[in-house]
Amino acid sequence: MAGSIFTKIINREIPATIVYETDSIIAFRDIAPQAPVHILIVPKKEIPTVNDIQESDTSVMGELMLAAARIAAQEGIAEDGYRLIMNCNRHGGQEVYHLHCHLLGGKQLGRMIQ
Ligand code: 5GP
User: Residue 113: inside a domain, yes or no?
Assistant: First the structure.
């Protein structure tokens, strides 16, 4: 896979509000926020889905979790709490096939499964 919409954001080919970036991770505000804070945390490597994670990706996946905690603190929602979601394939509701973690918060969230 090459050139996902998120890779275009990573390469600054399309705009996004970037809130966090390292050599291997980028995070930016979702274009259609579902909560007051809705940030997408994305490995720069184009891993299509959670199913495609390899042993060699364990480091970047750990960095993704660390980024989530740091961004939550940065956004001021760490103490109240937040939700991390990774959708996988059709039943999971995945729309963009470049692995990403949703960070949602800033209000009391409702039930997880609809
Ligand atoms: P998924 O359903 O794949 O888990 O989530 C994809 C997310 O990407 C959706 O919440 C959608 O609003 C967001 N998204 C899709 N295209 C763009 C874009 O061009 N820019 C930003 N910032 N978010 C996007």
Answer: no
> Residues 45-65: pLDDT tens digits?
999 999 999 999 999 999 999
Number of domains forming the structure of the chain: 1
- List, in order, residues 6 or more apart from 44 with CB less than 8 Å away: 7, 10, 23, 24, 25, 26
Is the pTM higher than 0.70? yes
Return the amino acid letter for 30.
D
Which atom of ligand 1 is closest in space to residue 86's alpha carbon? 4
Q: Which of 37, 95, 102, 114 to mutate to test the pocket of ligand 1 (most atoms within 8 A of CB)?
A: 95
90 lines ligand 1 (CB under 6 A): no
Residue 76 domain flag: yes
